[in-house]
Design a protein that fits this description.
It is built from 17 helices and 10 strands. It has 335 residues and is an alpha/beta fold. The chain has 2 domains: 178 residues, 3-Layer(aba) Sandwich (Rossmann fold), CATH 3.40.50; 128 residues, no CATH class. The strands form 2 sheets. Strands 3-2-1-6-7-8-9-10 form an 8-stranded mixed beta sheet, sandwiched between helices. The longest helix is centred in the last third of the chain and has 21 residues.
C-alpha cells in the first residue's frame, strides 16, 4: 500500500458504518485521502460507535417521515464539501438510500458515488446518477469479520467494478493505492461473479463444517481442527502451481473404487453425500483440465456421478449393487 495519493486528496463521506466501511475508511485515510465521516441510521449502534472510534465521526442519515426529509447540519455540510460518496449498507437498502441521498443533495454535489455490494451493479445508484453524479459499484473481493480491521487488509485484493468511466477510474486508482487491483465486472456478469465469491468463501466454510463432522471423535476433540493444515496446503499449492496442477486425490488417480467406498459410507448422511457427489462431478472436470483422466473416461464417469446426484431414489441404492452400472454398460466403475 502506497503512503501518498497520486493526485490531490479526495474528501469522502461514507454511508453506513459496517465492517467494509471501517476498513475502507482506514485504508483510504492511510494513503492520504480525507474521510469526513459516516452517515448512519443510528448513531448509538455498535457499528457507528466502532466507526467513530476507529475511522472518524458519524452523523445521522436523513430519514423519511410524515413531516418530510430531515437531516443534521453536519450531514449537509459534509455533502457540500465531499468529492465522493461510498455507500456501504446491506444490499437491499442501497436503492432506498440512493433515493434519500438524491433528495437531500445540496446544489454543490459530490462528483462520484459508489456502493460496495458484490451482488448489485451500478444501476441501483440510478437516483444519484440522475442527480449528476458519476456512479460505480466497487466491491472488494474479500471477507471481513469483526476482528479484521486494518488499513492493510486490501493488499493483493481484487475490486470488482462497473459503472461510469469517471467513477470507475477513481475506484481503479483507489484499488491500486490500497495495494489491490481492479477487475471489470459487467452488469450481466454480476450474479455469476457474486456466486463465485460466495462459493469461494461461505461455501468453503460450509464444506469444512461437513468434513469436520465426518472426523472421528478423537480428532474433533483437538484444540485446532486437524483439517486446517490440509486445507491450507491445498490453497498454498494453488498459489504456487495453479488450479489444475494442484489437484490430488482418488479422482486425480482414477481410483474409482475408493470413490465408491466413500459414497457407500456417506449414504446415511444426506448432506455429506450430496456435497461429496456434487464436488466429485466438478473434480472430474478439473482432472480433465489437468489431463489426468483419459478422455474416454471423463464423459462416462461424469455421467455416472450425475445419475447418482439427480436420481436419489432408488437408483443410488442400486448403483452400489451394480444394477445401474449393468443397465448402462458401466460395469467397470469399481475397477
Amino acid at each position: 500500500m502506497t503512503s501518498t495519493v497520486d493526485t490531490e486528496p479526495i474528501s469522502i463521506v461514507f454511508v453506513g458504518s459496517g465492517r467494509v466501511a471501517v476498513n475502507l475508511a482506514l485504508g483510504l485515510t492511510a494513503v492520504g485521502h480525507r474521510v469526513l465521516g459516516a452517515l448512519v441510521r443510528d448513531i448509538h449502534s455498535d457499528n457507528a460507535r466502532r466507526f467513530q472510534h476507529l475511522a472518524g465521526p458519524v452523523a445521522l442519515l436523513p430519514i423519511n417521515s410524515l413531516s418530510g426529509m430531515h437531516s443534521s447540519g453536519i450531514a449537509t455540510d459534509w455533502l457540500k464539501t465531499a468529492d465522493a460518496l461510498v455507500i456501504s449498507v446491506s444490499d437491499g437498502a442501497i436503492a432506498e438510500i440512493s433515493k434519500e441521498l438524491a433528495a437531500m443533495l445540496p446544489q454543490v454535489v459530490p462528483n462520484c458515488a459508489f456502493h460496495t455490494s458484490g451482488s448489485r451493479d451500478s444501476e441501483v445508484l440510478a437516483p444519484l446518477r440522475a442527480s449528476g453524479l458519476a456512479c460505480a459499484s466497487m466491491h472488494p473481493l474479500q471477507t471481513f469479520t469483526e476482528t479484521s480491521v486494518s488499513p492493510q487488509c486490501f493488499t493483493g485484493i481484487a475490486f470488482g467494478l462497473d459503472g461510469d468511466d469517471q467513477a470507475v477510474d477513481l475506484a481503479t486508482q483507489w484499488a491500486r493505492q490500497l495495494g489491490g487491483y481492479a477487475i471489470q465486472v459487467p452488469a450481466v456478469q454480476r450474479p455469476a461473479y457474486h456466486a463465485a465469491a460466495v462459493l469461494a468463501s461461505n461455501a468453503v466454510l460450509a464444506l469444512l463444517q461437513v468434513a469436520t463432522q465426518l472426523l472421528p471423535e478423537a480428532a474433533k476433540e483437538q484444540p485446532d481442527n486437524p483439517l486446517l493444515p490440509l486445507l491450507q496446503g491445498a490453497l498454498d499449492n494453488v498459489r504456487r502451481m495453479g488450479l489444475p496442477q494442484s489437484l490430488t486425490g482418488p479422482i486425480d488417480r482414477g481410483d474409482w473404487k475408493t470413490v465408491a467406498i466413500h459414497l457407500q459410507t456417506l449414504k446415511r448422511n444426506t448432506t455429506a453425500y450430496d456435497v461429496y457427489l456434487s464436488l466429485a462431478v466438478a473434480t472430474v472436470e478439473l482432472a480433465m483440465t489437468k489431463g489426468t483422466l483419459p478422455q474416454e473416461q471423463v464423459g462416462e464417469r461424469r455421467q455416472q456421478l450425475r445419475q447418482l446426484l439427480y436420481h436419489r431414489e432408488p437408483t443410488h441404492t442400486s448403483f452400489f449393487g451394480g444394477e445401474l452400472l449393468a443397465s448402462s454398460n458401466n460395469t467397470d466403475f469399481f475397477k
